[in-house]
Amino acid sequence: MNFFYKKNLIIGDNSNLLKKIFDILEEKQLNQYAEFSYAYSPETSIELPLISDFKCTQIDVQKCVKTLVNNFDLIISAHCKQIFPAELVTKVKCINIHPGLNPYNRGWYPHVFSIINKFPTGATIHEMDEKIDHGLIIIQRQVEIFSYDTSDTVYKRILETELYLFSEVIEKILYNDYHTYTHQEEGNINKKKDFQKIRQIELEKVYSGREIIDLLRALTHGNYQNAYFIDDDNNKIFIRLTLEPEQVVKE
User: Fold this and answer.
1) Are residues 24 and 53 in contact, defined by beta-carbon separation less than 8 angstroms?
2) Do 221 and 153 touch, CB atoms closer than 8 A?
3) Cα–Cα distances in Å, from 83 out to 38, 128, 157?
4) Catalytic residues
5) Which DSSP letter does residue 27 get?
6) Rounded to an integer, what distance in angstroms lies between the CA atom of residue 178 and that of residue 171?
7) Chain centroid to CA 180: how far?
8) Domains of the chain, residue spans
9) DSSP for 144-200?
10) Could you tell me which CATH class the domain 7-190 is placed in?
């Protein structure tokens, strides 16, 4: 069994996702035929090593293009926070595991913006080109957003979907034996500054009930301090929203 892509790098900044990917490759015994290296971004602090025999190094893709081109046949971005330079994606096959349903809400926190703007969300695995979260789609699946979801609960379902899709197509990717497609529309993109802008709740602004609930649940993610307002003493007060659907007892 000979793989087309033998030297592969998986780079990401979510330690749980990297661990799950490692487990999938182990379960499928793909590491017997191909070499997998793991890396994370310089600005990321994740607990490593996660498990025995798991080695993860720090790589700055902007500064290490030549090294990456010379040492890897395939690079998979798994929630990597770095922007891959054009020189890299044109010289090495680069695949992105993206927590969004391209082309909607590409860029920063797709699920957060989908709760607010009602565009579809989900998981997409695609070839990378010079644009952010853009390129030929290998596989994708929509994830539903329910009225009682927060950013946290939606994200967890997206992660599960990503891992399912990754398990489905990783062998085809390694064999370079898959079909791609694209959407006619370019969709939209959100940047980090757009996320920072929506974090502050303006106390004098008039929101509808739907708008304020959607905004707060979109910004509620575990213990992260996202949504806030500034009180009369100029203190920053953080807000989280708890949503609990009614439990209907069947008689």
Assistant:
1) no
2) no
3) 17, 10, 25
4) 98
5) H
6) 9
7) 20
8) 7-190, 194-239
9) ---TT--HHHHHHHHHHHHHHHHHHHHHHHHHT----B--SS---EE-HHHHHHHHB
10) alpha beta
Please tell me whether the overall predicted TM-score, pTM, comes out greater than 0.85 for this model: yes
Provide the residue-wise pLDDT of the chain in tens; the chain has 251 residues: 556 788 999 999 988 899 899 999 999 999 888 999 999 998 776 555 454 456 778 899 999 999 999 999 999 999 999 999 999 999 999 999 999 999 999 999 999 999 999 999 999 999 999 999 999 999 999 999 999 999 999 999 999 999 999 999 999 999 999 999 999 888 999 999 999 999 999 999 999 999 999 999 999 999 999 999 999 999 999 999 999 999 887 77
Strand intervals (E) in the chain: 7-12, 35-40, 56-58, 74-78, 93-98, 106-107, 121-127, 137-143, 189-190, 227-230, 236-239
